[in-house]
Amino acid sequence: MNPRVTAIEPSLIRAIAAKKKADSIDLGLGEPTLLPQQRFIEAAARWAAEFGVKYTVNAGDVRLRERVAAHYAYPGMSAARNVVVTTGSQEAVYVAIKTMLDPAGDELLIVDPAFPAYAKMAQLEGIPYRHVHLREDDAYRYDVELILDAVDRATRMIVIASPANPTGRVLRDADARRLAEGLLARGGPPVWVLQDEIYRELTYVDDPGNLARHYPFTIAVNSLSKSNALTGMRIGWIIAPDDAIDAMNKTHSYVTSTASAFGQRVAYEIFGEPGALAEQSAWYRAQHARVTAALDASGLRYVPIDGAFYACVKLPNGHDSLAAALDLVERRGVVAIPGRIFGDSLEGWLRLSWVAPIDQVEEGLHRIANM
Ligand SMILES: Cc1ncc(COP(=O)(O)O)c(C=O)c1O
Predict the structure, then answer these.
(1) Mean pLDDT of the residues in the chain
(2) Tell me: the pLDDT tens digits for 55-83?
(3) Quick check: CB of 222 below 6 Å from ligand 1?
(4) Most buried among 79, 210, 214, 263, using CB within 10 Å?
């Protein structure tokens, strides 16, 4: 077997979820509870009945890619050729890391607390990686100077999720400009920024930043999973400048050949209707207000929620996060994710997903506060 694969430990998130009981309050799930917009699935089904569900070209149906590129209209990457449609953003991230970094000397810089898959993917590929830790005493704000200081000669890619999983923090537009400026001022070979935009439609601040608007060496990845409650449809995409996207398409063609043609058609319908990507964001905004009020009432310390559907809460009494999550699921009927899964900087915290009904979120917070 490949020793890089055997070296990777099984996911703690799954181990905790497996202990969930029928009556547990589930604040672990990183998945929308809303149903998807049925009309797009029905339109795709009508199309499939007429034309079948056939292979598309590797990069994905060109008419879908035109719509995706035009929707975001990122400078220098607004044509169909700048888009590759992938099997969720998970594949998009994997393909970007695998393609753009040379394991022989390039390094991936992970801004943490972070989605754990970035490090695992680098491990699978034998690509060296390093973490830069956002500061707890700064509420895990995206501190651009800290990130720029962490870049060294080997760094060829920085991965940033904004809005972030797990913290919900958002890179502001001024931060994105400053990061672009700082990286361009370095000279030498470019440092790519992989911006994971999977929670892009779920923001509760006025000035979210998209690196792709300011920095020509950006690779933006996204999917329909969270915005349109289509986690199982497995449709995502990469948007990148010409040379980079061609290389990533080559990798993609061997990893999955093409993304699901049915899913691509659903995406084509969604991108064809203005506002459809953001339609469900109203529910998240309303839930965000309810959750913020519940957090304030709980007395727990929490990270300001700029975006996504997570809340990070500080454990009372200096609890260890894994022990606390096990105690919560086994004895108190609450599923929550231990902070340490997202990096050392989030030890002592729990990540809660707040897509459950508000009374359950409130009860879960109450049980955590009383640990
Ligand atoms: C930050 C982040 N990136 C990527 C993914 C992968 O999602 P998908 O492959 O469904 O698009 C997730 C899933 O939870 C996530 O939270």
Answers:
(1) 97
(2) 999 999 999 999 999 999 999 999 999 99
(3) no
(4) 263
* Index of the ligand 1 atom closest to the CA of residue 115: 1
Clarify whether residues 192 and 218 are in a common domain.
yes
Which pLDDT band, with edges at 50, 70 and 90, does 266 fall under? Answer: very high
Tokens (6 digits) for 34: 């809303």
The CATH number of whichever domain residue 317 belongs to comes to: 3.90.1150.10
**pLDDT value at 367 more than 90:** yes
- State the residue for tokens 């010409």: 242
Residue from 225, 234, 312 whose mutation best tests the ligand 1 pocket (most atoms within 8 A of CB): 225
Query: How many angstroms is it from 197 CA to the middle of ligand 1?
Result: 9
pLDDT at 13: 82
The residue nearest atom 6 of ligand 1, judged by CA position, is 90
Q: Is the CB of 224 under 6 A from ligand 1?
A: no
Give pTM, 2 decimals. Answer: 0.97
Please give the distance, rounded to the nearest whole angstrom, from the Cα atom of residue 188 to the centre of ligand 1: 32
* 316, pLDDT greater than 90: no
One domain for residues 234 and 89: yes
C-beta 210 within 6 A of ligand 1: no
Please give the torsion angle defined by the CA atoms of residues 191, 200, 259 and 256, in that order, rounded to the nearest 10 degrees.
40
pLDDT of residue 187: 87
**Ligand 1: distance of its center to the CA of 198 in Å?**
6
pLDDT in tens, 79-129: 999 999 999 999 999 999 999 999 999 999 999 999 999 999 999 999 999
